[in-house]
Fold this protein.
Amino acid sequence: MTTLANRPNSALLVIDVQNDVVRNAYDRDTVVATIRALVEKARAADVAVVWVQHNSEELPPDTEGWRYVPELLRRDSEPLVQKAYGDSFEETELESVLAARGIGRLFVSGAQTDACIRATLHGAIGRGYDATLVADAHTTEDLSAYGAPPPAAVIAHTNLYWRYHTAPGRTAGTVDAADLDFAVTTSS
């Protein structure tokens, strides 16, 4: 139901599952395994997998901490978008990558829930995309020492509010990885 014309296709976004980003993430191994299974499911359904990678002073390019976790292997044919802001669309080529592939519906996974995941979801909806959060395929680190709720609560709250998010002419919501059937959600 995207508001973007001629965008019948879907994509799985894999955001910032980089070594230093998820090193201390809540339920890291389970979430990474879930994302890995989603990537394989998307590939099997011929759905685009688009990788997003954060660059910053804390994550300088070409360092071990900046690299994607070894459990997730990007194919050369799959786009890799570099970013410097929380919203994966801000000053990146993400929009042009999606437009070239006729993508109007996004399934969002990755890290961190309370930063880049939320920012990208809102950025997508604001730009006219349908944006579905894969409820069990995102994580964050424990920032409770800085006043944030514990990670499980951050994840649960994000799933709760995105499940009921609405915007005119667009769909939002959440789906569990096991229930995501790309064949059903992809237009031909």
Observations:
- The radius of gyration is 15 Å.
- The chain has six helices and six strands.
